[in-house]
Amino acid sequence: MPKAFVLTLWILPLATLLASQGVAQVKPQRIRVSQEVAEKLVVERAPLPYPPDARAARVQGSVVLQATIGKDGAVKDLRLVSGHPLLVQAAMSSVKQWKYKPFLLNGEPVEVETQVSVPFTLEDSQASNQNPSDQTKTEGAVGERNKMLVHMKIDNTPPAAPIAEPDGKKRVRVSQGVTDGLVVHRVAASYPEAARASGIHGDVILKVIIGTDGTVQNVQAISGDSALVPAAIDAVKQWKYKPYFLNGSPMEVETTTVVDFKVGN
Length: 265
Known about the structure:
CATH architecture of the largest domain: 2-Layer Sandwich
Number of strands: 15
Structural class: alpha+beta
CATH superfamily of the largest domain: TonB
Strand content: 25-35%
Order of helices and strands: HEHEHEEHEEEHHEEHEHEEHEEE
């Protein structure tokens, strides 16, 4: 048998093996997905007890976490993005026990990085304003609270106590899930061309103050790439909400909102 032919038979399988290894090396180890996508993959949520100190101090609001989800759907790592210190530990302890469906890319499970928003809202104000029969219904609904999806509420108008701000105005803090239901006019954020060209994408989380007339009074960035933040703020400033009523009176509202930028949109 010619030596050249024997050498060819030996080299071809080796080349095939090296090529297959090269393909495997370029597979992404971790991908980033939006909060909305990750929420659809949740198969198990742990109980979320309200911290007694936070309840006593009437602290409420959302804790936003950066989560890394393993190939097996278990939460591998959590980092704090924003949230009141009295609420953070309870939120992290709960989310660490969540279980997700594995995220598949080209049929293979991959690690995922995403954000999770955990809302804390006091229910006792609502119960005190109800008659006994309605209060019993509310207590039953509260018992189911931990089974509900992130951002969902027992009632469309959750109880909240006005908080006196440094500027002298009274304001209530509510979760994004509630205020999303009050949006009547939403302006889509324009994807910055420089960010698109650079492949920059992800979520921008904003703190939003909504006036008694439903207009956006102030917007501040909590987190997000600096190349995306201005476009997100410019869009949200033009949003319009239904007024939020507490005991029959319109109130200023403080909330958070997430603007998602995806390359290709």
